[in-house]
Every structure is written in C-alpha cells, then in structure tokens.
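G., before I forget:
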Amino acid sequence: MRELQKLQLLIDNAVTELQFSPYPAELYEPIYYILSMGGKRMRPALLLMACDLFGGDVEKAVPPALAIEVFHNFTLMHDDIMDKAPLRRGKTTVHERWNQNAAILSGDVMLIEGYKLMMQVEDRLLRTILNVFNDTAVGVCEGQQLDMDFEIRNDVKIDEYIYMIRLKTAVVLGGALKIGSLLGGAEMKDAELIAEFGENLGLAFQLQDDILDVYGSPEKFGKQVGGDIISNKKTYLLLKSLELANVEQSTELNKWINAGSFDNQQKVEAVTGIYNAVGVKQHAEDTMHAYADKAFEALEKLNLPEENKQYLRGFADSLMVREY
Amino acid sequence: MRELQKLQLLIDNAVTELQFSPYPAELYEPIYYILSMGGKRMRPALLLMACDLFGGDVEKAVPPALAIEVFHNFTLMHDDIMDKAPLRRGKTTVHERWNQNAAILSGDVMLIEGYKLMMQVEDRLLRTILNVFNDTAVGVCEGQQLDMDFEIRNDVKIDEYIYMIRLKTAVVLGGALKIGSLLGGAEMKDAELIAEFGENLGLAFQLQDDILDVYGSPEKFGKQVGGDIISNKKTYLLLKSLELANVEQSTELNKWINAGSFDNQQKVEAVTGIYNAVGVKQHAEDTMHAYADKAFEALEKLNLPEENKQYLRGFADSLMVREY
C-alpha cells in the first residue's frame, strides 16, 4: 500500500499540471489561483488510497481524484462569497482579488470541469461513479445551506447539527472513498462500507475539532484557544451546553452570546467555565467515540486482507488525537 | 412530426411535475420559483423536436430536455445576480426575493440537478451526451464572462461580438438539437450538422433581435424602440457603426454613449440617424442572412427525409421575420 503522504504529493503535482482553456482569462485565472493555494489534498488522496486498498491502478484514478479536489475548491470559492471571507489560507479570496461576479462564474465552470474530470473513468463505471458524485455534490450544497440557516437560528438541536456537519464535511470524505474503492474494483457492498467508514470518521473528526478549539493546548495544535467561543460558532459544545444548562447557566451563556463588546479572554474563560459546569466535554467525547466506533465497525466488515484493514486502522488512529 | 407548440406544452407540463428534495426548503424553493416563471421552453422543445425528427421516442427524451431547461434557468439565476437585475419576466428575481447567498447556492444545486436529469439516457449514449452537455455548459459560462468583459471595454470588435453571442446564446440551441438528435438515433455526423444548423440560426436570430430593437415597428413587436441604444448595449449595430463611422460621426456617437443625462427620444433619434448615415442596417442584414444561409446549408446536408427537412425549414422561416 502506498503511504497517504505520497498520495497527497501525487495529487499536489497533478493539480499543478491541470490545464484549462486560456480564454477568457478572467474566467480561468481564478481557478488556477485557488487551486494553487495548496491545502492537504486529503479528499483526493483518500480516493486514491481506497483505490489502492482494493488493488486498483492508482495512476488511472488520478483524474477522478482531481475531480474531487476541483469540486472541493469550487465549494470553497462560492462559500467564501457567501461568508464574505477576505482571506483563505492567508491569501486574498477570489471575490476580493477579482470581483464577486468572477468568483460566481469561475466557480460554476469549476463544477463543470469537475464533471469532466470525473467522467475520465471506464464506461462500465461511468454511471455508478457519477451517481455517487451527484449525491456527494448535492449533499455538500444542502450542508452549506443548513450551516447558513443555523447561523440565524437560536433553536438548533444537536441532531440537526450532526446532520449538517455530516452533509457539509463528512459526505464528501465518504464519497471520495466510495469512488476510489469502486475504481479499485470493490463490490458495491464494500464501497458502501468504506463510505460509512469515511463518513463516521469525518463526523468524529469534526467533533474532535470542536473539542480541541476549547480544550486543545495551543502549543500542540497551533490554534487560538476559544476561537469558536469568541465568534459564537454553533459547535457541538455550545449547542449541547444550551441543552444541558440550568436557568442560571443558560442566562449567563446567552448573555455572552448576545454581548456586543467584550474582552476575548474573559468571554472564553466564562463560557469554558459553563462548559465545565455542565460537563459538556464528556458528552462531546462520548459522541465522538460513538462515531469513531461506527467507523471501525464498518472497517471490520470490509472484505479486505487483514494487512489492508490494518492500514485503514492506522489512518483512522492518526486522525484521532489521544491527548489534548 | 409533432408541432413545436405541442412540444413546448409537453415541457411546460413536465416542468410542473419536477420533484426536488423538500429540505432544506430555502435551497429548493428558489428552484421551483424560477422554473415556474414560464418562458417559451424553446431549448428543451428543440431537443424534443430533434429527437422526433430522427424517429426517436419523444417521451423518453423528456428528462434530458428538462435538464436543458433546468440548466438554462441555473444560468438565469446566476446571471441575474451578476447583472443586479431586480426583475425577470415581471417577477422579483431570486436574489432579491430571498437573498444573494440563496441564489448562488440554489443555482449550484440546479446545475447538479441538470446533470442528474441529463444522465437519464441509455448507457450507450451516456458519455456522448454528457460530453455535449459539458461543452454546452462551459460555452455558456465563457459567453457570459465575455459579455461582462465587453461591458467595460471600448474596443470590442465585431468578430469578438459574434464569438460572444455564439457562446452565450447560440451554442445551447445547437447543443439541445445535437442531444435530441442523438437520442433520436442520429449518426454523429447528422448530430453535428443539426447543431451547426441551430448555432447559425441562433446567431441569425440574435442579429435580427439587434436590428429589430432599432428598426422594428413597436406595434408588431411590442418592444420599446431603441432600448439597446438608450442603455448603450454593445449590439452589432453599435459596434459596426463605430467601425464604419468617420471622425465626425464617431465623435457624435461617443458623445451620446458617454452622455450622463439625456432625453431618451432625442438619443434614439440621433443614434439612429448615425446608424442610417453609415448604412449599418444593410451590414447587419447581410451578416444575419449569411448566418441564416449557413444554417440552411447545414440543414440540406442532413440525412433526413424531405418531409422532415421541410419541417425544419418551416421552423427556421418562422423565426426569421420578413417585414420589420
């Protein structure tokens, strides 16, 4: 089996070799620009990994893997407009560097280019793989819509939050693994199992991210502690705390959420204090582990040699942190 | 052969029966809304017409025809954001009625739904038809980009204008006919000929539209005469007049283009006066006829019974106006 890092590098190189039409320049330059921003290329690498695990030809799977990366960057380009984000990975976003219309239209073309790349598979797999791609793409759009809806709602339930992050971030991981496995020759049953593995691992990973924002040591993770708290982001921790809180805690929490101006450190300390008082960390960890367990259950059912399963276990373990 | 009007009606009914996911509502409601605005359903009806002409099953071609209509409305939804248009067909545009983010994201989903509908064809045609759809879709985006580029440029040449309207409006007519003919059982050679017919007819039709804006009688066409002149729209007439004008005429024309405030009727009369002086109407008609001739040449080469060709000739004639 090839190392995941090597697959990421393979994608990174393939991205630089992508060729689009040169004209009209303003339509295609933003595509090269956003693709050159880098990133971990995790989604396309997972597609290649799944193909490899099922004994497929990794090189032949590069175009559909690039399709996943181009699609992912299309969603970033449009999300950045919707979020009015000035920066992505420290660089000016497309709608800021060009203009909003360029970002809308270049994004549209990226989605079409994604389909063109995804179609570079054998005839016998074409319909099956495009169906997975369609479902993945629709899921991501639905997830983004829910994320925006939730920003202006004050009654979001935990189940709705899980449903949203499943669509917005987990489905595309599952979809990439599913497509890769099918390209590698997997039966549909195994393709669905590896998608289940990826989706649940993605959920566990997102919940871990929510926990690390508050409880991760800044030295280890290089992130500002409490960023989500400062921006009132509706994470698992906040939503569950609102459910668990008594009247007094709830009032205090809402006071901080609605505060117009505040000292960042003071807010982070106060909200973390409530999180601790209601014991939300334990709930979050339990839920995270429940999804990680589901991922491992799906993994065990895969019709793969023990060695390949071990590889997948190692990959899953590497994503889940033992110590904060 | 079925009457075009009946095919338009068939599509109109099929559009009302389209079902999308009910949740999240804000993602799918704008899709139902824009599709309910009506319109002539010309593009999907042409797809069905081509299928019928080559002896195909019109009912089976309805999903790909709907794909073309859904795709077309996706472009309208995004174009309206880019053009900051408050109204479409007398109704509030999606980005005004909901908000811009809803219009971006609903449009994105429409493009994906378009692919899902377009995939409802036999396996043996799937790749071929999706390739045509990809080319059409990319062409329309490129055309829209050029249209926006041209708005802020003052040196647009006639060839560039023709290239732009070919991509923005003619390619999708050609694409619809091509897909329909393939579904009807046409050989690729004939599919390409009918696409050539549609593309050139589309160009002729667009040029006719440019002419009618200035020289059409308002009683016959129900349009305000000179709307393009008032809004400085870079039509064939304006661009060619700028090429043909002597220094004096050019100065006068640019004075009207750059005038901040003016009396509409006065501007229309003055600019029309220059159009007449440089004889641009004749040039426009010559070019229009040249494209119409190309369309008829392609038509004659089609491997179709005389009766079916006669039907196509009748359709083309009905689009081209004899008297203004």
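Chain A has two domains: 1-136, 187-324. The two ends of chain A are 30 Å apart (CA to CA).

More on Monday.
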